[in-house]
Design a protein that fits this description.
Two copies of one chain form a homodimer. Chain A is built from 13 helices and eleven strands. By secondary structure, chain A is an alpha/beta fold. The longest helix of chain A has 21 residues.
Chain lengths: ~400, ~400
């Protein structure tokens, strides 16, 4: 009789970290419902506000949640367990282990972006160093879509849908009352979300007419000239600008105006209208166009209730479930979930396990082939990439405008 | 044999004015489809960009539009004919008549707010003075919900739905990553839209926790104290602020920072993050709370694609159709459409004809009984008023959070 593989019996803990998304609870619920299928997983703990909840032993019993309530939570935006932006110090990690050991945690799941993958990696290393057997998995999430190894990340599709629908309406608003409209979109170093604004275009003259990404150096002179060019042609101009745009020296345009920095060393770019107002002022003064407006989409992009991509919801759920399957499969002691996609036109995705270090720290950026040579637009290849992730969008109607001859 | 009432034969023109809404094209299409039923209406012209289109003889033939295309346009946000913020001078009015007479216009419809009602009134007066028989009707519209005679106005319900869904998500975002979040909402003199943020509340501790309306003098000291109070109690605070908040002397808080003024003498309040940033700065400095963010919802509130109130869509359509019915009924030569509502719990509305002067110029404000005595919240009576106008909202799930005893 063949030796039966020994299963790792113990408790599980799961936490959410970083910026919330509209589908982050799908991953949570996906993981919890999958965990309930595995007998080696005893208690299913949730940590409130990420690692902070472990450090403070502020835990809840997710195993007691009803399926009906979990399903309602899954449909609800923003991290149901609460989130945190704290990066653990070596001392924090030591304390995390004391707690994990005390609660007999053998399955650790952390839903978040690259910072959270790094945190998971640190904890996994510490567990190994301590000779404590524990499965450590990171579950991919970020509206920025900047995780390596992933074709795209849970949360991005829904945020991109919000941005696209916002631009659809805003383009029509600008068409009705012409002028220059600048919209500032989230994305510190990666322009994916800003680029998704291009999905708003349904007619040849639809905006956004210009798209500025952090992947290309931003020149104020070129920006003013670009806007003037579109305005002269169409009598109006809608612009999508990433909050993370930086000059040729890599200095963020916004950083000259906003001082707050979080514990990861990131300048606060969201939750302020300063960048949009700055750009609008430049256009008013330099391009001498009087009606110039700026909106900063802000936190609505990641948390707006009622606008989710169905594909995104499904994939976020699958990522959560996959992490538990990988952990319980016995093949891997740790890793991260990565969304993979089949090449070709037919949209098909699946979740693979990848090494934590492949996702941690470094992020990915918009590849060159998705950015127009002009540096102020995206390519058709990007549209083909992003459209199925976002799914169907409202159809925009236009009057045919049968012109009446002047009398 | 009784004398048969003489019908006024001639052409019709319709135009859209002021800020776009998500349902303003419902009113346009409602009017056009109704006009097609009346034989006395010959040509159905649309004027591009409000009165500007008449002044420049920039007209289109709406009678040639297919019903299918009109239905698609009806579902589309923002003024399909284009809009304008220009208030006609007496010279403009003279020129308008020359054009109207030249095109044998006998039915004039103007979709807009109180400024547009005033414009319609001026044109009607000029028509009478010129001895030119013409039916002049204003069709109610404004997200601000500030038209007199109306229980509520087309456009408000959808904008309120957007605001409510935005706050639902933002409250959850703030709950996940606690701090102070300030959201600036459109509404120059009337707080209805800001007040609608209260619809986001589904649990007792849900935000918005504080609501500031232009109907109550805004004191920076009280604001800081209010926020501190909520923050001390809940560890977080979500605030809804109307862009039009003013101090005890009636000076707009924003006006100290924003200079641009439109041709109606209104200070530009939207399309800038200045007010939100100012308020956030005050809280950071005076309340010594570090995580403070501000978002200004901006134009998304009035034009976002894909979030419309079904009730609002239906009523906007009905208002457009009603204006044509009133004009063709023979009973009235002019007027405005007003949405009336039956008293009591059962939601039932209809469109009445009212005098142009009853809607023009002056606007209405939140009545006292809908504002909490504290001056920083709304009452249950307001919720009962606004909920059926907005219609169903997403249901928010929460974990039950079965706390685990500390070991």
């Amino acid at each position: 009789m063949a030796a039966k593989k020994q299963k790792l019996n113990g408790n599980m803990i799961i936490a959410q970290s970083g910026g919330p998304t509209v589908v982050i609870n799908q991953s949570l619920v996906g993981a919890v419902l999958e965990a309930k299928k595995h007998k080696e997983i005893k208690k299913i703990y949730g940590s409130l506000h990420g690692l902070k909840g472990i450090l403070e032993e502020n835990l809840c019993d997710l195993g007691k949640e009803s399926k009906a309530n979990l399903e309602l939570v899954a449909q609800t935006p923003s991290s149901a367990l609460g989130s945190v932006r704290k990066k653990p110090t070596p001392e924090d990690c030591q304390k995390v282990f004391e707690v994990l050991r005390k609660y007999d945690i053998r399955y650790f799941f952390y839903i978040g972006g690259n910072d959270s993958a790094e945190t998971t990696h640190i904890i996994n290393e510490a567990a190994i160093a301590a000779g404590y057997e524990m499965k450590c998995f990171h579950i991919c999430k970020t509206i920025d879509n900047d995780l390596r190894e992933n074709d795209h990340t849970p949360g991005f599709g829904s945020a991109a849908k919000f941005v696209a629908q916002a631009f659809m309406g805003d383009n029509l608003d600008n068409r009705a009352l012409p002028g220059v409209k600048i919209n500032v979109i989230m994305g510190r170093h990666a322009g994916f979300l800003t680029a998704a604004s291009a999905l708003a275009r349904q007619y040849p003259d639809d905006g956004p007419h210009l798209i500025y990404l952090p992947e290309r150096p931003f020149s104020m002179e070129k920006f003013v000239a670009d806007v003037q060019g579109v305005y002269q042609k169409l009598g109006r101009c809608v612009v999508a600008v990433s909050e993370g745009i930086a000059d040729e020296n890599g200095e963020a345009i916004a950083s000259k105006f906003i001082k707050e920095v979080d514990s990861h060393g990131n300048v606060q770019l969201s939750g302020s209208g300063a960048l949009g107002d700055l750009l609008a002022k430049e256009i008013k003064e330099k391009a001498q166009i009087s009606r110039v407006r700026a909106d900063t989409f802000g936190y609505l992009q990641r948390s707006f209730a009622g606008v989710a991509s169905a594909v995104d919801q499904k994939e976020a759920r699958a990522a959560g479930a996959a992490a538990v399957k990988f952990a319980c499969g016995g093949e891997y002691a740790n890793g991260s979930t990565a969304i993979k996609r089949a090449p070709g036109k037919k949209y098909m995705t699946w979740i693979e396990r990848t090494e934590l270090k492949n996702v941690a720290k470094e992020t990915r950026h918009m590849p060159d082939e998705w950015i127009a040579p002009s540096g102020n637009d995206v390519t058709k290849a990007f549209i083909a990439y992003v459209a199925p992730i976002v799914g169907p969008l409202p159809k925009i109607g236009r009057l045919k405008v049968y012109k009446v001859a002047k009398k």
